[in-house]
Write a structure and sequence with these properties.
Elements: H1 2-13, H2 23-41, E1 45-50, H3 57-67, E2 76-82, H4 86-94, E3 98-100, E4 116-122, H5 131-141, E5 142-153, H6 158-165, H7 185-193, E6 198-206, H8 213-222, E7 229-236, H9 245-249, H10 271-283
Parallel strand pairs: 1-2, 1-4, 2-3, 4-5
Antiparallel strand pairs: 5-7, 6-7
Helix pairs in contact: 2-3
Length: about 280
C-alpha cells in the first residue's frame, strides 16, 4: 500500500524538479543587490563567485538580467566558479566564466581577501563534510556588506515531515543517496551567523512536493517553511577574523579540516598563485 502511494506521489511531482534549484530566486536577489549598489553607490564592477557552478546556469541568468536592464549598461561583471566535471567546465568557460577546478573542501579558493561581491552556493553544501572550511573561505573572500546566497534541500519540507511521520527516511538525506548533510532554517542560521560574520536577511522556498508546477509555485510562496528548497540570503558583516576561530574556541569531537586537531595546510595564497590560477583558467 505504501509503495503504491509513493508511486502516485512520484507521478504527481514529475516535471517539477527544475524548481528545486530556485534559479529565479537567486538571480532576483543578485540582480536587486547589484542594482541597489549601482544606484546608491555608483558601483560599476561586481565580482560573483559560484561555489559549484555546474553548467553555469545561475551566473548566466544573473548576467542576462543585468544585460537586459538598460539602466545597468555600464555594469561590468566578473564571473568565477568552482567546477571539476570537464564537460561542465567547458560549458562554463564558453559562457565567459573563469573556472577553478579545485577541492572546495580543502583547498584555498584562489580569490583575494574581501574581493567578491556575491557568493552563490546552490545545491552544494548538502554534499559536503568540511563545511567549516567552506564557511571560512566564504568569510575570507566576501567584501563587507557582500551577499551570501545559499540554496539547499529543506529537511523541514512538508514531504519530509510526512515521511518521518510514516517512519520513512526523509529524501533530504538518505544513506543510499548523495547527501551527507541536511538543513532547516534555524540550523542553517546558527551555522552561518555563528561568531557574527554574517547577518541573516531573507528566506524563500522553491518547489512543493508532491504537487505539480503551477500549484508548487504558489504553495512555495505562501508556505516557504514547508517548501522543498530552502533559499537564504545573508550579508557579510564588518567583523574581522577567521570563521575557523569557532573551532579554536569550541572543541568538537570530530576533527574537521581546519580544526585544532586537524589543522589546515598553510592557507596563505600569494599573488603569484592567484595569477597562475586565473591564467590557467582562462587558457583552457
Amino acid at each position: 500500500m505504501l509503495e503504491r502511494i509513493k508511486n502516485i506521489v512520484r507521478k504527481w511531482k514529475e516535471g517539477t524538479e527544475y524548481l528545486n534549484y530556485g534559479r529565479d530566486i537567486i538571480s532576483d536577489w543578485a540582480y536587486q543587490f547589484i542594482k541597489e549598489k549601482y544606484i546608491k553607490e555608483n558601483q560599476q564592477e561586481f565580482v560573483i563567485f559560484d561555489h559549484g557552478c555546474g553548467h553555469g546556469d545561475d551566473l548566466q541568468l544573473i548576467k542576462n538580467k543585468i544585460e537586459n536592464d538598460p539602466d545597468l549598461k555600464s555594469v561590468q561583471l566578473s564571473l568565477y566558479g568552482i567546477e571539476n566535471y570537464p564537460p561542465f567546465v567547458k560549458e562554463c568557460r564558453e559562457k565567459g566564466i573563469i573556472v577553478f577546478s579545485i577541492d572546495l573542501e580543502k583547498e584555498v579558493y584562489p580569490l583575494e581577501d574581501a574581493s567578491v561581491d556575491i557568493v552563490i552556493t546552490n545545491q552544494v553544501l548538502e554534499h559536503t563534510k568540511e563545511i567549516f572550511w567552506i564557511m571560512d573561505q566564504f568569510t575570507r573572500i566576501l567584501k563587507p556588506e557582500g551577499l551570501l546566497i545559499i540554496g539547499v534541500p529543506n529537511l523541514a519540507s512538508l514531504h519530509n515531515r510526512i515521511l518521518l511521520l510514516l517512519g520513512e527516511q526523509p529524501t533530504a538525506q538518505q544513506s543510499l543517496g548523495p547527501h551527507v548533510r541536511s538543513f532547516t532554517l534555524p540550523d542553517l542560521r546558527r551555522l552561518v551567523e555563528v561568531n557574527g560574520y554574517f547577518q541573516f536577511l531573507e528566506r524563500k522556498g522553491s518547489n512543493f512536493y508532491p504537487f505539480p508546477p503551477f500549484i508548487s509555485k504558489v504553495l512555495a510562496k505562501l508556505f516557504p517553511s514547508l517548501a522543498w528548497g530552502l533559499f537564504t540570503k545573508f550579508k557579510r558583516t564588518n567583523k574581522k577574523g577567521s570563521f575557523l576561530d569557532y573551532l579554536k574556541e569550541n572543541f568538537l569531537e570530530t576533527p574537521y579540516y581546519g580544526s585544532p586537531q586537524n589543522p589546515a595546510r598553510n592557507s596563505s595564497i600569494t599573488q603569484i598563485q592567484r595569477k597562475h590560477f586565473s591564467k590557467k583558467a582562462l587558457q583552457k
